[in-house]
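The records we work with from here on pair a chain with its fold. These numbers are not coordinates but entries in a learned vocabulary of local backbone shapes. To see the layout at work, look at the sequence and tokens printed below.
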Amino acid sequence: MSDSFAGGKLKLKGVKDGKVNKKKKKKRMTEEAAKATLEEEKHTVVVDTPASGTRKTKAEIAFKKAQEKREGDKILKKAQVSHKERVEQFNEHLDSLIEHFDIPKVSWTK
């Protein structure tokens, strides 16, 4: 067995010159600057374009549309039945279930 060893420190990937760069804290905006940016945001319209960096595939777009459609159908279905009717339906369902946890009557004398 040969005892060859390449000496030196371990190197981390993505770190240059062995220095770790710390993230700098962002400066807080003053109240006036914050108010100005809020008013600018109110007047601007946000458009989701591919240039903004959020590109979606055809499958993702189709999935999102189907999900929104299902959610809309679910809301319409819930809106058609009032709370009172839902409670009545639930009670009917409970009545139709077998009473699994009820204690059966046991007669020791007969």
Remarks:
- The two ends are 90 Å apart (CA to CA).
- The chain has a mean pLDDT of 79.
